[in-house]
């Protein structure tokens, strides 16, 4: 990732589009503190991602590209665990867990262990875990990859509502998804941000096509 410069306003959705290997996950990892930048800096709500990593973690919800779940824990246990990490009060945590699982059609799987869920169900659980406690910033790396059309629409609806409470940065390969969800779209290729703007601005500027 090289010379990436972006700014995301509070309570908006920023979609990072780009082909395989463009540098989307790498950029996300720098923001979560998983990777150290060789140079440059990034801040989340005014806090430096390297220096203030521990502080930032508390206001961050993350859905990694590849699900990181505890195979022996149920969906419900995942929700309580991550809600606890967000310092949620127990009753509120249970209510939120119930609401999120329901929005993502996982209510019937609440007590199933994550290891026994289908790929798309695991994906939705990863997203639910990222959203519990309404973290100030939510980073979602390809949250809808592997989901059927019906579940993808449910995720879109949930994210549109979540915007009131969180600032969301998500990566996707889907132009349709970016068009529908994003307040701002950034297109990455070869580690660089090639263009940024609202969907309308990009369509007006590149309506006839854009070659990465
Ligand atoms: N740990 C690493 N060390 C060195 N190079 C890496 C590492 N991880 C990824 N890369 C390289 O960095 C580039 C960007 O990878 P990245 O995972 O950020 O792409 P991406 O945009 O998320 O792609 P995808 O859509 O396939 O998820 C790739 O060329 C990849 O090979
Ligand atoms: Mg990736």
TrEMBL record:
Alphabetized PROSITE patterns for the sequence: ABC_TRANSPORTER_1, ABC_TRANSPORTER_2
Pfam families per UniProt: ABC_tran (PF00005)
Membrane topology: Multi-pass membrane protein
Domain of life of the organism encoding this protein: Eukaryota
A single Gene Ontology CC term: chloroplast
InterPro entries xref list: AAA+_ATPase, ABC_transporter-like_ATP-bd, ABC_transporter-like_CS, ABCA, P-loop_NTPase
SUPFAM superfamilies hit by this protein: P-loop containing nucleoside triphosphate hydrolases
Subcellular location per the Swiss-Prot or TrEMBL entry: Membrane; Plastid, Chloroplast
GO MF: ABC-type transporter activity; ATP binding; ATP hydrolysis activity; lipid transporter activity
Keyword set, alphabetical order: ATP-binding, Membrane, Nucleotide-binding, Transmembrane, Transmembrane helix, Transport
The ABC transporter domain, residue ranges: 1-211
Family label: Belongs to the ABC transporter superfamily. ABCA family.
Protein name, per record: ABC transporter domain-containing protein
């Amino acid at each position: 990732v090289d010379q990436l410069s972006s700014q995301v306003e509070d309570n908006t959705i920023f979609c990072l589009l780009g082909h395989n290997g463009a540098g989307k996950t790498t950029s996300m990892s720098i923001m979560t503190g998983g990777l150290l930048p060789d140079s440059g800096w990034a801040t989340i709500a005014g806090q430096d991602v390297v220096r203030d990593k521990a502080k930032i973690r508390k206001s961050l919800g993350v859905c990694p590209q590849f699900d990181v779940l505890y195979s022996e824990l149920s969906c419900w246990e995942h929700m309580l665990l991550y809600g606890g990490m967000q310092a949620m009060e127990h009753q509120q945590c249970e209510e939120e867990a119930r609401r999120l699982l329901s929005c993502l059609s996982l209510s019937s799987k609440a007590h199933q262990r994550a290891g026994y869920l289908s790929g798309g169900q695991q994906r939705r659980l990863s997203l639910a875990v990222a959203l519990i406690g309404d973290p100030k910033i939510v980073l979602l790396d390809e949250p809808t990859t592997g989901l059927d059309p019906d579940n993808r629409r449910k995720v879109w609806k949930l994210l549109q509502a979540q915007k009131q409470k969180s600032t969301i940065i998500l990566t996707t390969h889907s132009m349709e998804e970016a068009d529908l969800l994003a307040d701002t779209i950034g297109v990455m290729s070869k580690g660089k941000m090639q263009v940024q703007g609202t969907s309308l601005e990009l369509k007006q500027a590149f309506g006839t096509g854009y070659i990465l």
